[in-house]
């Protein structure tokens, strides 16, 4: 292995996983022998068996490890090791224990004895094959980036090759090498349109691993359903669960998931869905088909916004069903459910906005940019959306004329373009340059793990008619929270200048600086906890003083003897506090949403309310307890796995406030807080925050 050798023969086997399959007749024999093993079976299966095992025929043993065609072939090739023969086994299957097992699982002694420098499975394959051409943003407009030949240039080379010559024409038109764009005839445009539909349908079939795209959703495998959602919102699978690892392998083998890396020990693999606009568009169209099936719409039903229509039915949307199934099958990492639900809500609003603005609502193109105002209208319930559209910046001084612009006025020409999410590995996500690149690729950003202030960044093009450039980009910065009760607006404030979103120079014209949006989604908020549970750590803070003052007042009591709790189902318009210093030069429109129910989110139907509550609660300690009735859960809590305000923790102590149980968490209506503007904006350095109490 250490010497260079001359290569004489290169041999490769495609679909090599077939060689690793045990013949059915041998598999049946193995199953039978495993059921009633004999002493001879025990000796052949395990040469190291003890005498006690050999004399006890009733003790079960492992089935015989029959050699496969691959084992025999590898054994034969081993004899040719010094003859200049190189053999390559190719497969989309990721069943490593069969195709490329770790040494400890190998059936052959020769295989087990191979040196540690042996190659692990090769996963380095081409991606984003532009050759020597580079896209020039200034040649692009937002209408260009949503064309199928353009999207086919990203991702696997297969998409571009299928769209040739049209994808090459796109590169010639928008690259630096060709100052004069190529001309295309009307007949070529027609053929390009038909080919685009064929490529998108092929992507749907490959994603489902099924040619019948109109088959009912439940008739597809769980893996196929998961793949459609995973492409768009990037699910996080639970690595510690064997079922999740098997599920990932199945997605790689049959549903277009990419294997990034296989360690040398070949015990597991790392995989995911990379940013491929074609595949994201295909997944969006498949979800749209399943939504139409939920509504029972046939081909003759036209002119219907199916995302919006689902709100008024008793059906559960397909995306929510898939997410619930993934959790019920223990596939999803329960610690990430808050962010996954947040991304799902944003994608549902984006799809609904596409249907609302599309000229063909029956067969929409989900990669078309949509207005920012429409996105927010489709995300939030009607009453709250109106409050957002009339809100004003919360960080401008009184004499700044931009402080009078409402949200609708500031973003009247702005559009967003995202069909999927992509993970970021460094701190470069929050910038106008990144916003430009992501807008071109139709993706939003999942900020790196442990990012301090922003979880999701959605690029915004401020002028839909302008040529693409970093100078016309802004963004929506989203933060997800999964807490039992809401935090303060000051504590969650995001400042674009501090995160480096805009390129600020001394000679900038302040009146030309772009506005931006911050969206805080408090998904876990239900009813307010008892006041004693709300006391912050800093006793000298304004919030602590206010809570302690209220604790000294007489608390109203219900007939049952428990303190009355007010529902958080309301909209609070917060007038800005007096300013003590000049604020940011970039107008900030802040939206603070708490709760996860139809009251605040337009994309959640009444029948989905309980499903979302189940999903968001799945990360809790007792979420997987087999008996979820109140009595059983109360008895488990009395075992003291944790302490909290309430009878189950403090029943042994005669203390009224410690024994005040929290209200029923079924009250999860939620609310929205926006700024109504005013003479001055709030002070961003005021870490104490404001107190919102009834």
Helical content band: 25-40%
List segments where confidence is low: pLDDT < 50 over at least 5 consecutive residues: 30-64, 527-539, 553-567, 569-583, 678-694
Average pLDDT: 76
By DSSP, the count of extended strands is 14
Shape: globular
Q: What is the rounded distance between the termini?
A: 75 Å
Q: How is the main sheet built?
A: 10 strands, mixed
Rg, Å, rounded: 30 Å
SS content category:
alpha/beta
Beta-strand percent range: 5-15%
- Contiguous helical run count: 25
Give structural notes:
With 694 residues, the chain is an alpha/beta fold. 33% of the residues lie in helices and 10% in strands. It has 25 helices and 14 strands. It has helices spanning 24-35, 39-45, 51-55, 69-78, 96-99, 109-112, 148-151, 157-162, 166-174, 186-208, 222-233, 242-254, 277-294, 306-310, 318-328, 337-357, 372-379, 382-389, 407-410, 432-440, 496-499, 542-551, 609-616, 630-637, 647-650; strands at residues 9-13, 85-89, 258-261, 270-272, 370-371, 415-416, 420-423, 443-446, 456-461, 473-481, 516-522, 570-574, 588-594, 671-675. Strands 5, 6, 7, 8, 9, 10, 11, 12, 13 and 14 form a ten-stranded mixed beta sheet that branches. The chain has a two-stranded parallel sheet with strand order 1-2. The chain has a two-stranded antiparallel sheet with strand order 3-4. The longest helix has 23 residues, at 186-208.
Fill in the keyword field for this structure:
694 residues, alpha/beta, ten-stranded mixed beta sheet, two-stranded parallel ribbon, 25 helices, globular, disordered C terminus
């Amino acid at each position: 292995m250490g010497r260079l050798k001359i290569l004489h023969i290169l041999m490769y086997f495609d679909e090599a996983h077939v060689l690793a399959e045990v013949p059915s007749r041998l598999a049946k024999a193995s199953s039978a022998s495993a059921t009633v093993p004999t002493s001879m079976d025990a000796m052949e299966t395990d040469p190291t068996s003890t005498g006690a095992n050999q004399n006890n025929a009733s003790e079960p043993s492992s089935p015989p490890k029959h050699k496969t065609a691959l084992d025999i072939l590898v054994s034969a090739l081993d004899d040719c090791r010094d003859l200049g023969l190189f053999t390559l086994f190719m497969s989309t299957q990721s069943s490593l224990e069969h195709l490329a097992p770790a040494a400890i699982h190998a059936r052959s002694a020769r295989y087990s004895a191979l040196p540690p420098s042996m190659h692990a499975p090769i996963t380095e394959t081409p991606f984003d094959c532009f050759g020597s051409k580079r896209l020039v943003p200034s040649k692009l407009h937002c209408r260009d980036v949503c064309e199928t030949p353009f999207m086919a240039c990203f991702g696997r080379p297969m998409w571009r090759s299928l769209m040739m010559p049209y994808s090459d024409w796109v590169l010639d038109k928008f690259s630096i090498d060709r100052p004069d764009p190529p001309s295309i005839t009307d007949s070529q445009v027609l053929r390009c349109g038909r080919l685009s539909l064929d490529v998108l349908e092929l992507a749907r079939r490959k994603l489902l691993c099924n040619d019948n795209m109109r088959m009912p959703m439940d008739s597809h495998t769980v893996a196929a359903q998961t793949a459609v959602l995973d492409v768009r919102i990037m699910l996080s699978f639970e690595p510690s669960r064997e079922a999740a690892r098997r599920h990932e392998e199945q997605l790689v083998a049959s549903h277009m998931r990419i294997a990034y890396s296989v360690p040398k020990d070949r015990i597991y693999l790392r995989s995911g869905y990379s940013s491929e606009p074609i595949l994201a568009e295909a997944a969006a169209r498949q979800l749209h088909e399943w939504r139409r099936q939920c509504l029972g719409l046939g081909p003759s039903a036209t002119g219907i916004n199916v995302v919006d229509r689902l709100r008024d039915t008793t059906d559960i949307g397909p995306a929510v069903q898939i997410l619930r199934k993934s959790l019920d099958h223990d596939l999803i990492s329960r610690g990430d459910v808050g962010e996954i639900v947040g991304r799902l809500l944003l994608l549902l609003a984006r799809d609904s906005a596409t249907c609302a603005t599309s000229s063909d609502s029956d067969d929409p193109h989900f990669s078309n940019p949509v207005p920012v105002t429409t996105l927010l209208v489709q995300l939030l319930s009607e009453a709250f959306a109106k409050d957002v559209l009339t809100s004003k910046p919360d960080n401008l001084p009184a004499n700044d004329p931009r402080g009078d612009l409402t949200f609708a006025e500031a973003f009247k020409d702005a559009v967003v373009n995202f069909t999927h999410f992509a993970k970021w590995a460094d701190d470069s996500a929050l910038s106008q340059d990144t916003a430009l690149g992501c807008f071109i690729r139709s993706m939003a950003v999942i900020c790196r793990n442990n990012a301090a202030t922003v979880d999701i960044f959605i690029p915004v093009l401020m002028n839909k008619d302008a040529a693409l450039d970093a100078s016309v980009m802004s963004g929506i910065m989203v933060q997800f929270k999964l807490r039992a009760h809401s935090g303060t607006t000051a504590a969650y404030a995001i400042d674009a200048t501090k995160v480096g979103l805009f390129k600020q120079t001394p000679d900038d014209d302040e009146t030309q600086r772009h506005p931006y949006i911050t969206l805080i989604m408090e998904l876990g908020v239900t009813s307010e906890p008892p006041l004693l549970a709300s006391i912050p750590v800093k006793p000298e803070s304004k919030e602590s003083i206010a809570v302690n003052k209220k604790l000294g007042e007489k608390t109203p009591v219900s007939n049952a003897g428990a303190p009355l709790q007010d529902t958080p189902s309301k909209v609070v318009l917060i007038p800005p506090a007096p300013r003590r210093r000049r604020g940011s030069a970039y107008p900030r429109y802040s939206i603070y949403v708490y709760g996860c129910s139809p009251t605040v989110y337009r994309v959640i139907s009444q029948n989905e309310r309980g499903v979302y509550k189940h999903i968001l609660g799945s990360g809790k300690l007792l979420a997987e307890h087999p008996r979820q009735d109140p009595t059983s859960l109360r008895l488990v809590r009395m075992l003291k796995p944790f302490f909290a305000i309430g009878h189950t923790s403090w029943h042994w102590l005669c203390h009224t406030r410690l024994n005040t149980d929290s209200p029923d968490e079924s009250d999860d209506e939620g609310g929205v807080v926006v700024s109504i503007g005013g003479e001055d904006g709030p002070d961003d350095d005021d870490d104490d925050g404001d107190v919102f109490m009834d």
